[in-house]
């Protein structure tokens, strides 16, 4: 019998064309497991990515010196603004990975632990910028830094001694 594109071929003898539900579920779960672990691994790589910038940022802050100048202020601003903006956009960082995981596995993971780790590492990066502000003397850390904001206490009573010599 010659092959024609319009005709469907019958399955060979002994092969069922329909898989049992148990076999289909086992095949699907075994195929989805490596993909899910790959997405988890990629999410952890994304979560640990701020560590790569710690040493560069710390070196740049150290090289900018301890005097208040334009270069040291620019480096300090960079060290403070980058972690803050990264903390604001934490959901956008993992959004593409979550979409890819949903396409391959069928469910969208939350990546909660990875997001928490990412936020904590961004807090460490923010602490580098705050350390630089403190070393420049721009962060109020002592009581004497706050004297301008304290209220002056006026006495309620004024005591003048009776035996005050006349001038």
UniProtKB/TrEMBL annotation:
Offer one Pfam family short name for this entry. EMC4
Enumerate the UniProt keywords alphabetically.
Endoplasmic reticulum, Membrane, Transmembrane, Transmembrane helix
Keyword DNA repair recorded: no
| Record-annotated membrane-spanning stretches | 54-80
* Compartment list: Endoplasmic reticulum membrane
Tell me the membrane topology, using the record's own terms. Multi-pass membrane protein
| InterPro entries in alphabetical order | TMEM85/Emc4
Give the superkingdom in one word.
Eukaryota
Signal peptide residues on this chain, from the entry's feature table: none
UniProt keyword Membrane present: yes
Q: Which GO terms describe its cellular component?
A: endoplasmic reticulum membrane
Q: Which family does it belong to?
A: Belongs to the EMC4 family.
Q: What is the protein's name according to its record?
A: ER membrane protein complex subunit 4
**Which species is the source of this protein?**
Thecamonas trahens ATCC 50062
């Amino acid at each position: 019998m010659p092959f024609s594109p319009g005709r469907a071929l019958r399955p060979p003898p002994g092969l069922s064309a329909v898989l049992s539900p148990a076999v289909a579920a086992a095949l699907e779960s075994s195929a989805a497991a490596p993909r899910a672990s790959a997405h988890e691994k990629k999410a952890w790589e994304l979560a640990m990515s701020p560590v790569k910038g710690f040493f560069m940022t710390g070196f740049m802050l150290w090289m900018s010196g301890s005097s208040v100048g334009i270069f040291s202020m620019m480096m300090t601003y960079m060290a403070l603004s980058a972690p803050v903006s990264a903390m604001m956009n934490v959901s956008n960082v993992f959004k593409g990975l979550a979409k890819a995981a949903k396409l391959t596995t069928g469910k969208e993971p939350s990546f909660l632990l990875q997001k928490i780790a990412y936020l904590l590492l961004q807090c460490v990066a923010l602490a580098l910028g705050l350390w630089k502000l403190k070393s420049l003397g721009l962060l109020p850390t002592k009581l004497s830094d706050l004297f301008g904001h304290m209220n002056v206490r006026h006495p309620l009573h004024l005591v003048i001694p009776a035996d005050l010599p006349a001038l």
